[in-house]
Design goal:
Elements lengths: L5 H16 L38 H4 L9 E2 L2 H6 L19 E14 L6 E6 L8 E6 L6 H13 L10 E17 L15 E14 L2
Parallel strand pairs: 1-2, 4-6
Antiparallel strand pairs: 2-3, 2-5, 3-4, 5-6
Amino acid sequence: MMPISGTAVRRCVALASLALTAGFAFSCASVNNLGQNLGPLEPADLCKCTPLDQGIEYRHGEKHVPIPTMPPEEVTIDTIYSWPQNDPGSLDPPRTGVELQVFHVAVAFVQEVSLNSEDCDIHVEISETADKTARRVIVETPVDSEYCSARQNLQAQLAKHGVKLDPTHGGELPQALPADVVGLAFLDFDHNAIGLGRGSAQVGTLWEIHPAIVNLAP
């Protein structure tokens, strides 16, 4: 795995320091596995969540985009793990290459789901099998208005399985749930390089599907 360059990391840390000095909550990335410490500040309606990071997260503009209308390419989690993780060389690189393609993950199991109250994205970890030790990929559904129905649908689907998703509920599921995922590929940065967590120990790639729409199997 090739980490993001030291220069990019230093820029991220510098921006974090400036943001905290100004009184803003900063997130270099959109992943905070549970985030319950901030949850009570947000309403239960997932479409009314207000981001606390003020849009200064890592590659904010590249994450908050509509999913293009194009035929999706079928992909597996094993294939996603094979994609090269190249250093983009800057803090806010534009989407290029595989990141411009819409992908469909037909075989996926939701292992974890939570709401990140810093950027209001729904954070989901999927694996290729239901095994709790299987390697995972992060997929995220942004707070942007075009994803409101997708967020509410996932919340309702989870509720049918006895799983509550809101600002104060979420996390590792007791049992993996089969799902279908469509969205854009996205290369995140190496959180470990600056001492931040990025999902569970089973997440071993910087590649995500972000933005993404997740539907549980009927």
